[in-house]
Every structure is written in C-alpha cells, then in structure tokens.
Design a protein that fits this description.
By secondary structure, this protein is an alpha/beta fold. 36% of the residues lie in helices and 19% in strands. The protein starts with a helix and ends in a 7-residue tail after the last helix.
C-alpha cells in the first residue's frame, strides 16, 4: 500500500512538473505563456448569460476550446464530464468554449446527447482562438487560482485519468497565492 501511494504521489508530481514546464506560444500581441496571466474574456453560455474568465479567480479553471464537428473533441467530452463530477465541490471549474459557427444550434443538441453538465460557452466568431493563439481543437489551458496559465494541452486527453484528477485536485486545494 505504501508503494502504491508513493507511485501515485510520484506520478502526480511529474504531472505537476509537466504542467509548469510546457511552453505556450505568443498569440499576436497577447502574451499567452505558461507562467503568465490568462487573458480575460467574456462569452455567452448556452443559456445566454455572459461569463467572464476573471469571475473565476480563486478557482482552478479548465479552459477547453472545442467544436462539435471535431472527432477528438467528441472523444474527450465524456472524460471531461467525469472530471467535472469528480471535482465538484472543489475550487475548480470547467469552461468549455465551442467555436462552432452555428453556435447554440449545433452545441445544445450535442450537450444534451453527451449529457454535459459543465458550463459551455459559445464563441461563434473564434475570438478566443485568436486571443489565446490556438492552432486547432481541442486545446485546453489549465489556469490556477491566481489566474496564471500553468499548462496547455493540444489534442484530446483522457481527463478522467486518476493521475490527472489527483493533480488538478491538488492544484484546487492549494491556498490562494501559492504558485501552481
């Protein structure tokens, strides 16, 4: 049992190290770089309310940019829902930003089909892609409680993997002011 705990702790440590070391390219004038503040934005949700990233300061934000037509995006959505359910009650939030140009017409049926309960934002004009300098979908940014980007993932992942859940839970449980 002690060996298993040591292996899990080591894996979580490696994941957190990787979170801090992965570079993110500059996006035009915006400096979207691991270790720097995440650019703020405001986008509508499926229900029509406007959400700002800055409203989530004090929480770890899992910012995922995706589209309904993207096969890898579709494959990672169930694991994102599992992650969301697993970290409910923690200082953690998922903001899944759809870049579908059809907006709610494409996204609402998709969210219903996949039984997604986390917040889904609509970005029909691709504003966030430009602001964050993304090159495709899916792309995920992990933003710590202080609004600092601590990781960028390009491509789909199994977000329900126990090592990832543990690392994100640890990040969410760190006191505000401590670096990710």
């Amino acid at each position: 049992m002690i060996i298993l705990a040591a292996v899990v702790a080591a894996a979580a440590g490696i994941f957190l190290f990787l979170l801090q070391e992965q570079p993110v390219r500059d996006a035009g004038n915006a400096q979207v770089v691991v270790g720097r503040p995440a650019p703020d934005f405001a986008l509508p949700t499926l229900s029509g309310e406007t959400v700002r990233l800055s409203e989530f300061k004090g929480r770890v934000v899992f910012l995922n940019i995706w589209a309904t037509w993207c096969g890898p995006c579709r494959s990672e959505m169930p694991s994102m829902e599992k992650l969301y359910q697993e970290l409910k009650g923690e200082a953690f939030e998922i903001l899944a930003v759809s870049i579908d140009t059809a907006g709610e017409k494409a996204v609402a049926p998709f969210a219903k089909e996949y039984k997604l309960n986390f917040p889904i934002l609509i970005d029909e004009k691709g504003t966030l892609q430009e602001l964050y300098g993304t090159t495709g979908v899916p792309e995920t940014f992990i933003i710590d409680k202080n609004g600092i980007i601590v990781h960028k993932a390009i491509g789909a992942r199994d977000w329900a993997d126990s090592t990832i859940i543990r690392a994100l839970k640890d990040l969410a449980q760190k006191p505000d002011g401590q670096k990710g």
